[in-house]
Amino acid sequence: MARWVGKRMPKGLFARALIIIIAPMVILQSVLAYAFMERHWQTVTRRLSAAVTQDIAALIDVAESYPQDKDYETLGRIASDRLGLDIEMLPAGPLPPPAPKPFFSILDSTLSREIRTQIGRPYWIDTVGRSNIIEVRIQLEKGTLRVLTRRSQAYASNSHIFLMWMLGTSFVLLSIAVAFLRNQIRPILKLAAAAESFGKGRDTDFHPRGAREVRQAGHAFIEMRRRIERAMDQRTAMLNGVSHDLRTILTRFKLSLALMDEDAPELDALKKDVDEMSRMLEAYLAFARGDAGEQSSPTDMGALLEELKADAERQGHATDVVVSGDPVATVRPDAFKRCIANLVNNAVRHGDRIAITATRDPRWLTVMVDDDGPGVPLDQRDEVFKPFVRLDEARNVDEGGTGLGLAIARDIARSHGGDVALADSPLGGLRAVVRVPV
């Protein structure tokens, strides 16, 4: 039961908070309505009905005690002037069939009980026929006494006032609750938006607002962001230092090789080793650096993909580019270009034909890179994203490289709040799908 209720409850904090406020209010109003209508109104109605019944009983006693008033003119005048009742003596005969009873009426049951108790004669009442008039008929020895009285004389009929007050106060309280909740939830939404923007690598101007607990969470987020940024700055500074020192050593190696005798048989091998070391160093540093520090900005995906298409065609590979939707997306331009470039280079290395498709909707940017190469086995598609992993099969993800191409691509996509996945391509090879929020 709890699981069933949980699935149907609203998921948002605003809606749940409203339910927390509305549910007790509805229960309280229902209890008050029951207590007021069933207790107070029932008591008042019983007293009013008893008073009307006593008046009718007194009129019956007078009519039977003074039979000389054959036309009941005096009795009718007294009933009208003093008691507010309209009476008429009908010829003797059977009472009408029972009138329809209302579904819920305190008056009908209370008045019937008082007539049975105080008068104890056959009777007939109609509380439905005319909304503001009650008709009572009492069977006497000489005829049937017909009494008409206003409903207000026997029934406390102010339920509409009570309901209006109840609904009016509920509406006012609910309006205040909604305004208050919106003001309290807005800082939480701003905190969530700031955290999401920071996760996507975007700048955000966030200042804690709201209740004390929300402000504490906001200050904790700001402090966490500062620590992360400080750690990233320290790592970037360290990597820049390492890069500078190692590049200096590699430059010395290259200079030494340039001064060596070109006829030396081992010279070509040494040059290849130095070039390979330089390339591996750049890959390792790029992976460790993660393109930190670059800010997001609106980027034309069409122009970016056309550049990658030109690079692939210069290497002799037929490449198609299709962009649908708005081509402008907010990403870190250099990092995102490198992410797609790694996937395109992977396709260039193992296929002859390449297709790049970009789709932009209001929430997501999806870029698919297809090739006609040998593909990657299904059971190894998660493994190839791990750093330094290279396949032994026909398709080697980083043949002759470091095994960081797909790892860097996924790391960049995830730093944008998205991801990279592999699937079968319609071209017969591998499809790499990059999906990032915009």
UniProtKB/TrEMBL annotation:
Stored Pfam families: HAMP, HATPase_c, HisKA
GO CC, alphabetical: plasma membrane
GO molecular function: ATP binding; phosphorelay sensor kinase activity
EC number(s) per entry: 2.7.13.3
Protein localization: Cell inner membrane
Keyword field contains Protease: no
Transmembrane segments: 162-181
InterPro entries found in the cross-reference section: 2C_sensor_his_kinase, HAMP_dom, HATPase_C_sf, HATPase_dom, His_kinase_dom, HisK_dim/P_dom, HisK_dim/P_sf, Sig_transdc_His_kin-like_C
Domain HAMP: 182-233
Domain Histidine kinase per the UniProt entry, residue ranges: 241-438
Residue runs in coiled coils: none
Keywords: ATP-binding, Cell inner membrane, Cell membrane, Kinase, Membrane, Nucleotide-binding, Phosphoprotein, Transferase, Transmembrane, Transmembrane helix, Two-component regulatory system
Main localization (coarse): membrane
Membrane topology listed for this record: Multi-pass membrane protein
Catalysed reaction equations from the record: ATP + protein L-histidine = ADP + protein N-phospho-L-histidine
Name of the protein described by the UniProt record: histidine kinase
Naturally occurring in which organism (per UniProt): Alsobacter metallidurans
